[in-house]
Every structure is written in structure tokens, then in C-alpha cells.
Amino acid sequence: MKEFEAIYDKDPYIRSFEATVLSCEKTKKGYEVELSDTAFYPEGGGQPYDQGTINGIFVEEVHKKGDRILHLLKEPVETGIVVNGQIDWQRRFDFMQQHSGEHIVSGIIHGMFGYENVGFHMGKVIQIDFNGPLSWQDVEVIERKANQAITDNIPIEYLYPDAEELEQMPYRSKKELTGKVRVVRIQNIDLCACCGTHVAYTGEIGMIKILSCIKHKEGVRLEMVAGEKAFLYMQEIFNQNHAISVALSAKMNETSEAVKGLQKALVEKERMISILNEKYMNYKLDMFMESQRVIMSFEEEMDRNAMRKFANALVHEKYAHVGAVFSSHEDEYQYVLVSDSFDLRKIVKPLNERLNGRGGGNSEMIQGSFHSTQEEIEEAMHDVEKMV
Ligand SMILES: [Zn+2]
Question: Does domain 7-87 have CATH number 2.30.40.10?
Fold first, then answer.
């Protein structure tokens, strides 16, 4: 097929067409079908391929090979017959909105900063790499201008300049071009060599939202969405913010302040808890006699850090050979055992076996959990007492 003469080039709005099957070849992936003409856009220029059906058979992929366009089907079609092609329009129109939106943003950045678009990928979101830095303030200005270009409803035109005209044209392109070139023009916004499918007027893009701008190589990588995707994204973000607003009884435009307040209160609570833990531990320590072989303390829902601190205090302040803290959590006991005179590795395995436990550690500290009752643990620890 000649360059820029396929149906999708001449009219990207055609979503149903008839064509003759020129060939159908079996390959590893399925059947590669070439048609006399096609509205299926083959992957290219950063835009993914179209999907849809040919005579009701799903078109999985479409690729360009030289000047042939090959449609990948799961089932064969007969060579020479006329078939009906149907484009998955939702998928295609989304690509048209994204791609035209990308041209607007790239054109505005090129106009304002002179940066080139040096990488372009259309996936769940559009990723564009530029070869120069941008601040978030810049991004907000760009986004505003881009949405103004949508409101202005500018026609998107295709130009086919000859070599001489092309020479004079200040168009954007990622590579040196030879042969027939198509330039996509959005008056006063962008001029770019491109083979993709575009909406007829910028108004059809509906909305452009830039999602992020991060440093990438010498420039930045922008992520953006356009069209219905942008609307759905904004709706989701709005709903998120609304839920936060209700949960925190904060106005929709004051949720971030409310979250900061919550974080501050949380830090203060953590501080209070640690003071109370300290007081509780000192109170509890006073209840134990000094220099026993094993000192055990049974607690409820004590966190691991506090358990370690407590077990250490039993050894270093109450001079126990082994300081043992057990804390009930749901249907098990977590344990921390500390010693500075006995190698705890000797008892960790037998204890775990006897008390349905797991865990381990080093000679000075072992920790884990037991699936046993307090009585069973106490009994086992009395046997430990004879060893240390
Ligand atoms: Zn393009």
C-alpha cells in the first residue's frame, strides 16, 4: 500500500470498511492477512495498533512490514474474497485523543522552551521525554495553554509538503526524514511530522491533564492523559479526595492540611505511648526480685520493641540469668528471651518443639512465638531454670 493512502490515513473516522483479501499466511502466532485497503492503524510513531474484527474474526495485532500492512488473526480468511473490517472504535478514538493531546503539549513546550520530544510512549498514560528541564510551575502553565487550545477548537490538518517546502518548514521530528512526509498542523500550536491518527478538531480531545514531571536524563519525563481517560482519572481523584474529606470532616480544598494535622497528632500519640510504656516497665520491674535465674513476665499485646526493652531490663537491672517476656497476641504468645551469661541458641529449638513455636536468634537474644498456654510455657521455663 502506498504511503499515506490507507483508509485510516485518508479518513481516521472510518470504523467499518470492505476490502479484498490479498494474502493469508500461517505463522507461529496465527494468520497474517493482507488486505487491498485497511482502516486498521498499524503500530507506529508511538501509537499502538488498532484492534477489531475482520469478518467477525478478532484482529489481535496490526503491523507494517515494508509497505505491507499485516493483520494478525487467530483464524484464516480465504484469499480473493471481500471481507468486512470493524475497528474497535473505543480503543482507536482513545488513541486519537491521546495522540492529538500529545502533539498539543509537545508543540507548546517546543514553542515556549525550544525543547524536543525525544521519546514518546502511549500506554495506560502517555509518557513524553523532553531534552530540557521543567518546573511544576512551568507544567501548570503548559497544561493551562493546552486546555485553552482545546477550547479554541482548532482544526488538525494534514500537509504533504514536497522536499523544497519541507526544507522551509519549522516542523518537529524525531529523525531525519526522506521520501514522502506528512506534517500534522495545529495552527499556532504545533507542526510535526507524524503518521498517526488524529481527531479533526482539538475540541474533541475534551481535556488534558499532566500527571507528573520527573527528571529524566538531561531533561524531564512527563506523564499525561487526555480525552475520556483524563475525565475518568479526574473523577477517580475527586472521589478519593471526597472520601478523605468526609473521613476527616475537612473541606475538599483543605484535605492536605487536615492530613498534616492528623500526622502531627499521631506523632504526639506515639510519644505519649512511649512515655507510658517506660512508666509501666519501671513499675513492673519493681515487682521482681533481683538475681533470679529466670524472670518471666506475661503481658498482653505488647509490641516487640517494648518486649525487647523489657527483657533486657530484666537481665541488666534485675540481674536475671534469663529475662523472658511473653505477650499474648490472638491465640499465641510472642516471646523474647535475653541472656548475658547463657547461650540461648541451646534452648531455642527444644523450646519451639515443646511449645509449638517458631523463631530463633543469637546467643544473647531469641524471639518468636509459641502456640501454647501460659501454664505450658511456665512449665517449660522451669525446666530451663535448671539449665542456666
Ligand atoms: Zn504524532
Answer: no
Cα–ligand 1 centroid distance for 31 (angstroms): 29
* pTM confidence score: 0.80
Distance 137 CA to ligand 1 centre (A): 26
DSSP calls for 110-152: HHHH---EEEEEESSSEEEEESS---HHHHHHHHHHHHHHHHT
pLDDT at 179 over 90: no
To the nearest 10 degrees (0 to 180), the angle between helices 136-151 and 89-113 is 120
- Rounded distance from Cα 382 to ligand 1 centre (Å): 78
- What residue type is 290 in one-letter code? E
Lowest mean pLDDT among 14-18, 115-119, 144-148: 115-119
Is 93-235 in the same CATH topology as 7-87?
A: no
User: How many Å lie between the centroid of ligand 1 and the Cα of residue 70?
Assistant: 21
- The CATH classification number of 93-235 equals 3.30.980.10
Q: What is the C-alpha to C-alpha distance for residues 69 and 359, in angstroms, rounded to an integer?
A: 62
Q: At what angle do helices 89-113 and 227-248 cross, to 10 degrees?
A: 90
Q: Cα of 75 to ligand 1 centre, how many Å?
A: 32
Q: Ligand 1 centroid to 288 CA: how many Å?
A: 78
Residue 27 has pLDDT above 70, yes or no: yes
The answer to whether domain 288-387 has CATH 2.160.10.10 is no
What are the residues whose beta carbon lies below 5 Å from ligand 1 (ion)?
A: 194, 196
Q: How far is the CA of 302 from the centre of ligand 1 (A)?
A: 60
* pLDDT for 174: 62
pLDDT digits (tens, 9 = 90+) for 315-358: 999 999 999 999 999 999 999 999 999 999 999 999 999 999 99
Strands 294-300 and 322-329: parallel
- Ligand 1 center–CA 194 separation, angstroms: 4
Domain borders along the chain are 7-87, 93-235, 288-387
For 244-297, what is each residue's pLDDT tens digit?
Answer: 999 999 999 999 999 999 999 999 999 999 899 999 999 999 999 998 999 999
